[in-house]
Amino acid sequence: MISAINEIPVTSNSYPFSSAERYCHLSARGYVEREYYVRGTANVYRSINDAGAVEVLTPEAPYVNRIVVRAPIDPEQASGNVVVEIINPTSFMEIERMWILGHGEFLRSGDIYVGITSKPNTIPKLVEFDTRRYAALSWANPTPETPFLFDPAELVRGGALPDIDITYEPGLFWDMLTDLAWKLRSNDADNPLVTYRRDCLCLTGWSQSGAYLFRYLNSFAYREDVARGSRVFDGYLSGGGIHSMVIPVNQYESARAYAPELRRVERCGEPFIAVQTESENGRFESWRCMLPDSDRSDFKYRLYEVTGASHDTKWSYLDYYQNDPDLKRINHLPVYTGLHDEPNDYPSQLLFHAAFRNLFRWVRTGAAPASCSRIPVDCHGENVKDAFGNSKGGLRTCLLEHPVARYSNTSRVVPGSGTVDKTADTDGLFGHQETFSAAMLSELYGTLAHYRELCEDDTAQLVSQGFLCQEDAPLLVDLAVAHARRAGLE
Questions:
Q1: Which of 251, 249, 247 is nearest to 238 (CA)?
Q2: Both ends of the chain: CA-CA distance in Å?
């Protein structure tokens, strides 16, 4: 239960970690960024079977967490759509990837964004960033005297994420999330959104946080004591979900085996859109978790597989942070470790804009978005390629229908510098691209003007199908044409 929400003042010397005001100039676009401490108590749960059912293990453990809110300065300009992001903690740094991918749509539509810290492993970097601002954060383990029944070091060597620490308890998160949702829906004076419309509340998460979203739906969202007779969230959007990962309900269960059904969501009474890139559509056991799109009342589901994009891209992982000196200061500025000249720069953010718009339309009107083809995979879960070396099928743009480059979902790296497997010489999360020669482009398209015509025709079709927002169509065409011009097409 939340006992208090207190705003953390923003000054020129103290501001939120990875502040969107600094990166996106929010105030100039009619938005304000605020940050809050959320204080309260949360239960720690335990699994009572391998299929997702849970019960309270330790009740009402105290915590202090944080949320960041980005909303129109004028409440009258709010759309009524609220996006709650489970902030990604995988790199031990707060990565608001769904904000990064979706904020172009949020800002122009008047949507409200709320990001919640989802794991205590990021707190040390927050404190290093600004000790005075974040020293109060606490996810203390209520039972630190209880030992692990496994060796955490063995789990790390086996590929598990190295964020197990007996001094804290990540399992506090489930109640934090539910209680925040109900607080945002309330008319309580300490609700940061109390002056705004809040018609639709949707949950989102990227990568590991997408796996958190799966677990929340499978184990918590429909418990009677959680739902309180109504839905907690009105819709869900997962991005880059890692299906090989089942999030334990508490860290003591990190070595537990779970039923395969928990690697995906099979039932959801609210609209649920999953967006995968080429890094995850077949890997991380995703090919074992494939489900068809559904309009059943108990499973409203769409899956978009974005052909061309890798899990991380130049725009979403490097450019957004603008070489931030604060992230350099704490030695956590994201970098590309690939050995290629061109990191993957596929504009997947434009497709996420449409995915969020489709989700809210689906919630509000009941009109389900269109389905799109899937990327075919071989017996190893690897994507099947076309004659240009690009993957077949999936959600495609003019950059693949009329390619000027070969897009890869992996990069060669020096062993030890990759993201997942530190022994490998490839990184499967940040791919690269190889631009075609000017001679090849001239043979394929003739002139730059003709290439623009082809891209405009293809993009108009993408807009008509609802996979791209009309406002983003000129930008997508311009990006494609600019790439062809840099490659030498005249």
A1: 247
A2: 63
Give φ, ψ of 128 to 5 degrees.
Answer: -65, -35
Three-class SS of 4-34 = EEEEECCCCCCCCCCCHHHHHCHHHHCEEEE
Closest CA to 353 of 447, 260, 442, 275: 275
Question: Averaged over 363-389, what is the pLDDT?
Answer: 94
Q: Compute how many other C-beta atoms are within 10 angstroms of the C-beta atom of residue 486.
A: 11
Helix%, strand%, coil% for the chain, nearest 5: 35, 25, 45
Non-local (6+) Cβ contacts of 195 within 8 A are 75
422, with CB counted inside 10 A (0-12, 13-18, 19+), is exposed
- What is the DSSP secondary structure assignment for residue 368, as one 8-state letter? P
**DSSP H/E element including 4:** strand 2-8
Share of the chain above pLDDT 70, in %: 98
Boundaries of every domain in the chain: 2-395
List, for residues 93-147, the tens digit of each pLDDT value: 999 999 999 999 999 999 999 999 999 999 999 999 999 999 999 999 999 999 9
Q: Which two tokens stand for residue 435?
A: 């631009």
Which of the two residues, 423 and 47, has the higher pLDDT score? 47
pLDDT band at 479 (very low <50, low <70, confident <90, very high): very high
For 208, phi and psi rounded to 5 degrees?
Answer: -55, -35
**Would you tell me which CATH number, out of the four given (3.20.20.370, 2.60.40.10, 3.40.50.1820, 3.30.70.20), belongs to the domain 2-395?**
3.40.50.1820
Helix (H, G, I), strand (E, B) or coil at 38: strand
Nearest Cα to 20, choosing from 89, 113, 130?
A: 113
- pTM of the entire predicted model: 0.96
